[in-house]
Amino acid sequence: MSRLQRNNQARPILPDRIVLRHLRLPLVHHFETSFGRVNRQETVIVEVHAAGLVGYGESPASAAPFYSAETVHTCLHVMRDFLVPMLRDAARKAVERMPCRDDVTGRSRRLIVDPTELPGIFARVRGHNMAKAGLEAALWDLKARLEHKPLHALYGARRKRIPAGVSLGIEDSIEALLERIRLFVARGYRRIKLKIKPGWDVDVLDRVRAAFPLLPLMVDANSAYSLKDLRHLKRLDRYRLLMIEQPLGWDDIIDHARLQKALRTPICLDESIHSPDDARKAIELGACRIINIKPARVGGPTRALQVHDTCRKLGVPVWCGGLLETGIGRAHNIAIAALPGFLFPGDISGSDRYYKRDVISPPVQVDSRGWISVPRGSGLGFQVDLRRLAEYTTEALKL
Ligand code: OSB
Ligand code: MG
User: What's the number of domains the chain is made of?
Assistant: First the structure.
């Protein structure tokens, strides 16, 4: 290799310090699903430091293994003991493979391990998608900052704004829920999702539809029903719902296919989809007509992009779900939701819907017509508020 060629090479950037933070934040309003009520959120924030920059990611696993098998503690354990060592090992091997590594002085900077390589590097670890996702997201943010590009541009996403939806939990009374709906409709939200469970479904929907006949509305059962409820679930067809999210088992696609045949309303799968292959199989079986993509649930941005592409090829619309993320995870979701296959408003709401003081500034804001602008600054496009991050941190692992 000539000196000139050598100088034209990008300078390789190695991840330096990695910090895993366990955060605990009070919610502005309790959030109740078919698996229970929470008043605060726990999550893991990942920092990858390199070349004087920091990339941020989030593993929004929560404190209890109710939505998924992961918790904040399984994330911390699997990242510290397996994923971070695997990433470091891959970085070391990449350095060894590099020619003339002492003399690479090119001006552009390239991560020694590209974030798209992480699913392969982590493949030996089964499951633990949220742990994988937090680390991969931090690497994407870092890559975007190194290249002075906004994250969505790295994904090839072009939208300048995305429509905001909101997911409203189970309340103590239908009146209280109607009040919540009025509040978010007045704030401009373009779609409302209601959590349902047996005993909190058709009566609620009767009242909501009477008050809001034209509201873009959907429901999410978080696996609260079974095929035994088939006749009951058919009653949901009356309410002109955009979709019914995850009515049946969290690990099922077979019964969902049976149910979808009996319903006019599209089924949307959330919990059942962990990979691009899961998405393909569910669609081939007819288990759903729509898919909720949560990058954290499918193992990170690279796999979220693959699920998006798979669904797009098969003509199935997707939208971006949420897991009560802080502004960091939410900013990552905004970047993904700017892709063209995201055809419904997501569970991407303003910071003020979740937290009084978010960890980013400015907070995520929804305009009066229900749009969120996709930021144009480099990386996440939001400033991380280090004071707030420290304030909410209960434990930090410096690796
Ligand atoms: O099923 O989509 C879900 C929150 C926590 C766990 C599961 C779910 C949700 C939401 C809220 O519906 C999404 C959000 O606004 O972040
Ligand atoms: Mg859901």
Answer: 2
Task: Say whether pLDDT at 1 is over 50.
Answer: no
Tokens of 335: 């970047």
Same domain, 130 and 106: yes
Q: Are residues 172 and 119 in the same domain?
A: no
* Domain C-terminal end among 124, 148, 172: 148
Q: Is the pLDDT of residue 351 over 90?
A: yes
Residue 44 and residue 76 in contact, taking contact as beta carbons nearer than 8 Å: yes
Asked if residue 377 is part of any domain, the answer here is yes
Q: Which of 132, 143, 193, 195 is catalytic?
A: 195
The Cα 21–Cα 91 span in angstroms is: 22
For the CA atoms of the chain, what is the radius of gyration? 21
Pocket test for ligand 1, best of 195, 293, 323 (most atoms within 8 A of CB): 323
Q: Is residue 210 included in any domain, yes or no?
A: yes
Q: Is the CB of 67 under 6 A from ligand 1?
A: yes
What's the confidence (pLDDT) of residue 9? 63
Helix (H) or strand (E) holding 267: strand 267-269
Which residues are within 8 A (CB) of 270 and not within 5 positions of it... i.e. 6 or more apart? 220, 222, 245, 246, 292, 294, 297, 321
Q: Which domain-ending residue is among 95, 127, 148?
A: 148
Q: Which ligand 1 atom lies nearest to the CA of residue 166?
A: 15
Here the CATH number for the domain that contains residue 361 is 3.20.20.120
The token pair at 275 is 């990979």
pLDDT 10s digits, 40-61? 999 999 999 999 999 999 999 9
Q: Whose CA is nearest to atom 1 of ligand 1?
A: 222
Q: Is the pLDDT of residue 199 over 60?
A: yes
The pLDDT of residue 10 is 76
For residue 300, name the pLDDT band (cuts at 50, 70, 90). Answer: very high
| 268 C-alpha to ligand 2 centroid (Å) | 9
> Given ligand 1 and candidates 167, 293, 333, which is best to mutate, with the most ligand atoms within 8 Å of its CB?
167
Q: Which domain holds residue 38?
A: 3-148
DSSP, collapsed to helix, strand or coil, labels residue 247 as coil
Given a cut of 50, is residue 195 above it in pLDDT? yes
Nearest atom in ligand 1 to the alpha carbon of residue 325 is 16
Do residue 301 and residue 359 come from a single domain? Answer: yes
CATH of the domain at 144: 3.30.390.10
Catalytic-residue membership of 195: yes
Ligand nearest to the CA of 273: 2
Specify the residue with its C-alpha closest to ligand 1, atom 14: 322
pLDDT confidence tier of residue 97, bands split at 50, 70 and 90: confident
Does residue 379 have a pLDDT over 50? yes
